[in-house]
From TrEMBL:
Name by which UniProt lists this protein: SAM-dependent methyltransferase
PANTHER family: METHYLTRANSFERASE (PTHR43591)
Pfam families cross-referenced by the UniProt entry: Methyltransf_25
Domain Methyltransferase as annotated: residue spans: 60-158
CDD domains: AdoMet_MTases
């Protein structure tokens, strides 16, 4: 739910009628008071699952927003961490929230970079890349390029990790909520410019695995046990871990 100090309905409407970049510039000051911020329990589960795969020296948060994922990198990386995002407003909020870095002055040095994730300005220097909640902003046709950019920013053997929730049961309230949101967004983008790309039902794990493999990754998935299991015994969420060959 929205915090009482979060964005108003009018502010959300203005954001939704803007481009992705402009919309997040507008939302940035109140973003962490919305349900869109990645919950701490997800961040903790990802950090706990990645820790045995380390140690890691340098980390990259792709589409870092206000810096929630940087908290994960600060716990895992010893040398430096970098957050990259297209929105100047989100990066400004991240710098304000973490003036000394997510882990304070004793943590690894932090760098904030404004760039398009489809054109990352990095040499292959990172051991670990993560991303949280950003993939809905990329159309399926753009994902191979996105994965290729992350691959190029990783050292050989470096890992790209992100959580994926189990698909909702067909016919469940969540299923129809996501279906309705995507349908409304398609109508909005057909009638209004600039487009605001945000779709929940286009990020399907089998397709994503194939695209990661095509970009040069070896892919595995690990259950995020801290987030529990569904009644059928399957995990509620998995961590995709793609290793640069």
């Amino acid at each position: 739910m929205f915090d009482p100090q979060g964005p108003t309905l009018r502010e959300l409407t203005v954001q939704a009628l803007s481009s992705v970049e402009r919309g997040y510039d507008l939302l940035a000051p109140k973003f962490d008071r919305t349900p869109f911020r990645t919950p701490e329990k997800v961040l903790d589960a990802v950090a706990d699952t990645l820790r045995p795969l380390g140690p890691f020296e340098s980390g990259l948060d792709v589409c870092c927003g206000t810096g929630a994922g940087m908290d994960v990198l600060a716990r895992l990386c010893e040398r430096r961490i970098t957050g990259v995002d297209l929105s100047a407003g989100m990066l400004a909020a991240a710098r304000s929230a973490h003036p000394d870095g997510p882990d304070g002055p004793d943590g690894p040095p932090v760098h904030w970079v404004r760039a398009d994730a489809l054109r990352l300005p990095f040499a292959p220097v990172f051991d670990l890349a993560v991303s949280f909640g950003a993939f809905g902003h990329f159309l399926p046709a753009q994902r191979p390029a996105l994965f290729g950019q992350v691959h190029a920013a990783l050292r050989p053997g470096g890992r790209f990790a992100f959580p994926v929730g189990a698909p909702p049961r067909i016919g469940s309230p969540l299923y129809w909520t996501l279906w309705g949101f995507d349908a409304a967004m398609r109508v909005r983008n057909a009638l209004w410019r600039p487009r605001f790309v945000m779709y929940y039902r286009t990020f399907r794990l089998p397709e994503v695995r194939r695209e990661l493999a095509g970009a040069g990754f070896a892919v595995e998935t690990l259950p995020l046990e801290d987030l529990g299991r569904r009644p059928d015994g399957s995990p509620r969420a998995r961590l995709v871990v793609a290793r640069r060959k």
